[in-house]
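Duplicate of earlier report; Acyltransferase input re-posted below.
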Amino acid sequence: MPNKKYKIAVIQLNLNDIAENNLKKCISWVRDAANLGAEVISLPELYSSHYFCQSEDVDNFALAEPLYSTSFIAFSALAKELGVVIIVPFFEKRMAGIYHNSAYIIDTDGSEAGLYRKMHIPDDPHFYEKFYFTPGDLGFKTIPTKKGKIGTLICWDQWYPEAARLTALQGAEVLFYPTAIGWHPQEKEQYGENQHGAWMSVMKGHAVANGVYVAAANRIGLEQYLPDTAGIQFWGSSFIAGPQGEILAQASHDKEEIMIAEVDLDLQENVRQNWPFFRDRRIDAFGDITKRAID
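Output:
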């Protein structure tokens, strides 16, 4: 029988360090989350390094790892030991010249439940991801695990209702968004509140429109590794929302924290019965959604 209730967690961390240290740190925090009762645990985007996409530098490709190497080996063993599901976002080297921003979904027995490759790739000042990442080619997927059915999207994907919808239509109970988003320090005073508010609002909207739980795991800290730049101040504020967009847990802007909430499938079903958005979708009229623009 599927679990009617299970606990999920997002871990918010400062990851401005070398890969070996970040790995040890994340293993420790996943243990802490499991000890608090979490059964499905997500780390932030690109957990193993600082956010290197602030510049276009071929030397940063050395941070990537092949499939089923360091990150998978470590977290597979940890998931099996703790009996939890772990979402591990990492920099994937697929082959020479092809790299992805990816995430393992590792099941409670240490096996790979699924792999997701980030579909939407941004190119903004100090978020130069198109230089590094090939767009994902695995599509939007709901992954069955021994704890529940989960969907994993990554950061820039969180702005797209189509990604949330297509994942939810496959039966996802929770949408996880491993994230690395923050302010340009020089813009924070003028734009910061609206930027952060939009980020919260769009994901809460995905929760409401799809009747799903939404969990975002962000990083914190000022990452100013490039000389003569202001860097990025990651805004934290990781959160878990329920199927009506209600905030169940939310982190601070500047502290390392674990956010935990309970997924209640009976509640989810009740919400969908009362707000039957899936029932009333006019799929016969949605054909143009696949066009770049409707001219």
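Residues 5-290 form a domain with the Nitrilase/N-carbamoyl-D-aminoacid amidohydrolase fold (CATH 3.60.110.10).

Merging into the original ticket.
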